[in-house]
Specification:
about 375 residues, Transcription Regulator spoIIAA, 4-stranded mixed sheet, alpha/beta, 13 helices
C-alpha cells in the first residue's frame, strides 16, 4: 500500500490564473498537508485557480473536504476555484458532495440593521399584534353573543371538559397558593401592627387584600399558566397539523368550534376559583391570628365582618371575569398564530403565558384606579 504522502503538486501562474496539477493519492491522511502545500504555492492574490485532478489515482472524502476548504479560502481573498480535468471516479464522487459549497461564492454574514430600523420593525410588529388582537377580540365577543342568544349551539360536551380541566383540576394549586398568600399577608401585617397594639386590624388587612387584589390576581396568574398555555398548545398543534385549515375548508366557524367552549368554560370557572381562593386566603390569615397573635377565631371573623362588605367581594369577581376573558382570548389567539413545527408550538405557548400575565397585571392596575376613583 502506498503512503498517504504519495502525491505531487505542481503550480503554474499566468495572467492572474494559477494552474495546479495534483498527481498520486488524495486521502484523509494527507488532505491537510496537501492543502497547505497548494496554498503555499499559490500567488498572494490569485483571480482564478484551475485544478487538474486527471493524474490522481485515489480520491476519498479527504479530497472533497480539501476542495471545499480551498474554495472558501480563495473566495475570502476574492478568488475562485474551478476543476478543469478529473477522472470518472472523481466526477462520480464529487456528484455526491454539496455542489453549492463547491460552486457558489462564499457570502459574507449579513450586517445587523441600524438601531432605527430595528426600532421601526418592532413598532410595526407591535401594531400588527394589537390589530390582530383587536380583530380576534371582536370574533370572541360575537361568539359569546351568539352563545347567549342561542345556548343550544354551544358545544357543551367540550365546554364541560374544559370546565373540569380549568376548575376542578386547578383547584388544589389555587387553594394552596391562596392559603400561603393569606398566611404571608397576615404575618407581614402583624409585624407592623404589633408595635401599635393593633393586632386586631390584621383581619381587616387580610380580608380586604385577599378579596380585592390577591385572590383574583393569583388565581388569574395560575389560570394563565395552566389554562392559557393549554389552550395555546392545543390550538397550535391543530394549526401545525392543518386541522384548523380543514375546519375552514369544510365551512365551519373556528370561533364556534374551538374558541367559544374554552372562553365560556373559563368565564364560568375563574370566578368560582376566586371565591375559593378568597375563603382559603382568609383562613390562612385566621391561622396566624389564632396561633401567632392569640386572637380568638370569633373575634377575628367578627372584626372582618364589620369592615368587609359584598362590594369588596364583587370587585374581585368583576376582575376575575375580565381576567378570564383575557386569558382565554390570548391563549386561543397565540394558538392560531403557530406556524409550523414543534418549536413554533413551544414559542406560542410561552408567549401565551407571558402575554396573559402581562395583560392581567395591566387590567388589574386599571381596575384599581377605577375603583379608587369610584
Amino acid at each position: 500500500m502506498q503512503a498517504d504522502t504519495d502525491y505531487q503538486v505542481s503550480t503554474e501562474s499566468r495572467d492572474g490564473t494559477a494552474a495546479v496539477r495534483v498527481q498520486g493519492r488524495v486521502t484523509v491522511g494527507n488532505a491537510q498537508r496537501l492543502l497547505n502545500e497548494i496554498t503555499a504555492q499559490l500567488p498572494s492574490e490569485p483571480h482564478e485557480v484551475e485544478l487538474d485532478l486527471s493524474g490522481v489515482e485515489y480520491f476519498d472524502s479527504g479530497g472533497g473536504a480539501l476542495l471545499i476548504r480551498l474554495r472558501r479560502s480563495l473566495a475570502a481573498k476574492g478568488g475562485s476555484l474551478r476543476v478543469t480535468e478529473s477522472t470518472p471516479d472523481i466526477d462520480g464522487f464529487l456528484s455526491l458532495l454539496d455542489q453549492d459549497a463547491l460552486q457558489e461564492e462564499l457570502k459574507p454574514p449579513p450586517k445587523a440593521p441600524p438601531l432605527t430600523v430595528r426600532i421601526g420593525a418592532s413598532a410595526l410588529e407591535s401594531i400588527q399584534g394589537m390589530r390582530e388582537f383587536a380583530v380576534f377580540t371582536g370574533e370572541v365577543v360575537l361568539g359569546l353573543r351568539d352563545a347567549i342568544l342561542h345556548p343550544r349551539q354551544i358545544r357543551w360536551r367540550d365546554t364541560w371538559l374544559y370546565m373540569e380541566r380549568a376548575g376542578r383540576d386547578g383547584l388544589p394549586i389555587v387553594l394552596l397558593i391562596s392559603f400561603l398568600m393569606g398566611l404571608i399577608t397576615a404575618f407581614q401585617a402583624a409585624v407592623q401592627l404589633k408595635e401599635f397594639g393593633a393586632e386586631i386590624y390584621v383581619a381587616n388587612l387580610v380580608g380586604l387584600s385577599i378579596t380585592r387584589e390577591l385572590g383574583p390576581l393569583m388565581t388569574a396568574i395560575i389560570a394563565a399558566g395552566r389554562s392559557g398555555a393549554a389552550f395555546a398548545a392545543e390550538i397550535g398543534t391543530m394549526k401545525v397539523s392543518e386541522e384548523v385549515d380543514a375546519l375552514a375548508a369544510m365551512g365551519l366557524d373556528r370561533t364556534r368550534f374551538l374558541v367559544t367552549p374554552k372562553v365560556v368554560a373559563l368565564l364560568l370557572m375563574l370566578p368560582c376559583l376566586t371565591l375559593f381562593a378568597d375563603l382559603i386566603g382568609i383562613i390562612g390569615g385566621l391561622f396566624v391570628a389564632v396561633f401567632n397573635l392569640g386572637l380568638p377565631a370569633v373575634v377575628y371573623m367578627r372584626q372582618m365582618a364589620l369592615y368587609m362588605t359584598f362590594h369588596d367581594i364583587n370587585m374581585g369577581l368583576i376582575k376575575s371575569v375580565v381576567f378570564a376573558l383575557l386569558i382565554a382570548s390570548i391563549g386561543c389567539l397565540r394558538g392560531f398564530q403557530a406556524r409550523s413545527g414543534a418549536e413554533s408550538v413551544g414559542q406560542i405557548t410561552t408567549s401565551a403565558i407571558v402575554s396573559g400575565i402581562f395583560s392581567i397585571i395591566v387590567a388589574d392596575a386599571i381596575f384599581t384606579l377605577l375603583f379608587h376613583e369610584w
